[in-house]
Amino acid sequence: QVQLVQSGAEVKKPGASVKVSCRASGYTFSNSAMHWVRQAPGQRLEWMGWINAGGGYTRYLEKFQGRVSFTRDTSANVVYMELSSLTSEDTAVYYCAKVRGGAYDHWGQGTLVTVSS
Amino acid sequence: DIQMTQSPSSLSASVGDRVTITCQASQDISNSLNWYQQKPGKAPKLMIYDKSKLESGVPSRFRGSGSGTDFTFTINGLQPEDIATYYCQQWDDLPWTFGQGTKLEIK
């Protein structure tokens, strides 16, 4: 069965960077895209961008341009999301989500990133 | 960006009730609309995709309809386990965007 397992919670200081991993199993990793979606406390879900797991092509939400980077390790079926120059507004749960057509059919369990001085 | 507006923001209903949530897009998105259920502390779960297609394993009491800019999510015969927040999501154009959510509670 498809599983997406994310790395554990992080606490970071303002200005720092965070790198979250998402390990995929149960499907052909290189044939799919992985999206990243975040949810700040009490807020709606926010699409951050996506990475083509096979070719490595990426697309980011404009507000994160220059501050976010998605990478992947096809030998280990892992995708990474790195976000830099963190502020308190980046405190959120970050999800990786596998796409089927236009829908997220499987999600990681979420990684809480807390930014606090 | 396409804005998605859900109503109501919260809803209280009794077990067995029919519950309806609406989602309005700021422009025509054809049938490119999905619905998710999210329980506290959990990741969202896909319920309905492409406006009206029931995801595998989802009970048939859940239904989606609509087209263009106006969409409806219905639960026929509310069950206690349906208590959650529900989100619509459009995939007609990047960036994919979500509604603000509808929190469903038991009366």
Q: How would you characterize the overall build of this protein?
A:
- Chain A is an all-beta fold.
- In chain A, 0% of the residues lie in helices and 54% in strands.
- Chain A contains no helices and eleven strands.
- Chain A has strands spanning 3-6, 10-12, 18-25, 33-39, 46-52, 58-60, 68-73, 78-83, 92-100, 103-107, 111-115.
- In chain A, strands 2, 4, 5, 6, 9, 10 and 11 form a seven-stranded mixed β-sheet that branches. In chain A, strands 1-3-8-7 form a four-stranded antiparallel β-sheet, with no helix packed on it.
- Chain B has 107 residues and is an all-beta fold.
- Chain B contains no helices and eleven strands.
- Chain B has strands spanning 4-7, 10-13, 18-25, 33-38, 45-49, 53-54, 62-67, 70-76, 84-90, 97-98, 102-106.
- In chain B, strands 2, 4, 5, 6, 9, 10 and 11 form a seven-stranded mixed β-sheet that branches. A four-stranded antiparallel β-sheet of chain B has the order 1-3-8-7, with no helix packed on it.
- Chain B is globular.
- The model of chain B has no long low-confidence stretch (mean pLDDT 97).
- Classes of the chains: A mainly beta (117), B mainly beta (107).
- The interface between A and B is medium-sized, with 20 and 21 residues.
